[in-house]
């Protein structure tokens, strides 16, 4: 029988000894994530659920516009998802190739700096992540032929992730990508990056503005925003869990 999921709650966060004991059954739980679970409660919440952490600064009536728990995995779900991204001898995570067009994927050295090509990363036998060139003034000249064609014609594309700088919010160049996803009827997600560079007040302001944009001006965007920092690693575990779920590699325990 599956154990009941362990979740954040307003009255009690986690009973950590019980959590660690139950998660010990998952041999794939990495040592690094086991150390994460030993963090103090407030630090753990900030790391795993950064937007739920800033949500508490809103008055109750203001929280209804945010959709922070549509995807609300348990700690056990997050732990199981970590195994998908853990590089082992049997679960290799490799840079595979670069491609200028969908039908052109030679083996090339990994490019440095700003992405000019589509770069393919194979995550074990689970799925392939495609890192695509950014849009806007630094986009390659063949952006439309390269990226738009791929997004429009790739039948097994599970989800598109649009990275938005949380410091400046949605810009004109972001609108281009959003309109493209809407036009092609692609399921997509907005990921807010660099959340370590903003104060709680500024981040909350940006989150509310972007959430309003998603609620009122999009149809194909997943309602819940994901916020991450590659510096503090905040939000990364939750985003990984979401990716594992939408690619069919994780069934949630709820």
UniProtKB/TrEMBL annotation:
<dbReference type="InterPro" id="IPR052279">
    <property type="entry name" value="EngB_GTPase"/>
</dbReference>
<keyword id="KW-0547">Nucleotide-binding</keyword>
<dbReference type="GO" id="GO:0005525">
    <property type="term" value="F:GTP binding"/>
</dbReference>
<dbReference type="GO" id="GO:0003924">
    <property type="term" value="F:GTPase activity"/>
</dbReference>
<dbReference type="GO" id="GO:0046872">
    <property type="term" value="F:metal ion binding"/>
</dbReference>
<comment type="similarity">
    <text>Belongs to the TRAFAC class TrmE-Era-EngA-EngB-Septin-like GTPase superfamily. EngB GTPase family.</text>
</comment>
<protein>
    <recommendedName>
        <fullName>GTP-binding protein 8</fullName>
    </recommendedName>
</protein>
<feature type="domain" description="EngB-type G">
    <location>
        <begin position="72"/>
        <end position="249"/>
    </location>
</feature>
<dbReference type="InterPro" id="IPR000795">
    <property type="entry name" value="T_Tr_GTP-bd_dom"/>
</dbReference>
<dbReference type="InterPro" id="IPR030393">
    <property type="entry name" value="G_ENGB_dom"/>
</dbReference>
<keyword id="KW-0479">Metal-binding</keyword>
<dbReference type="GO" id="GO:0005739">
    <property type="term" value="C:mitochondrion"/>
</dbReference>
<dbReference type="InterPro" id="IPR027417">
    <property type="entry name" value="P-loop_NTPase"/>
</dbReference>
<dbReference type="Pfam" id="PF00009">
    <property type="entry name" value="GTP_EFTU"/>
</dbReference>
<keyword id="KW-0460">Magnesium</keyword>
<keyword id="KW-0342">GTP-binding</keyword>
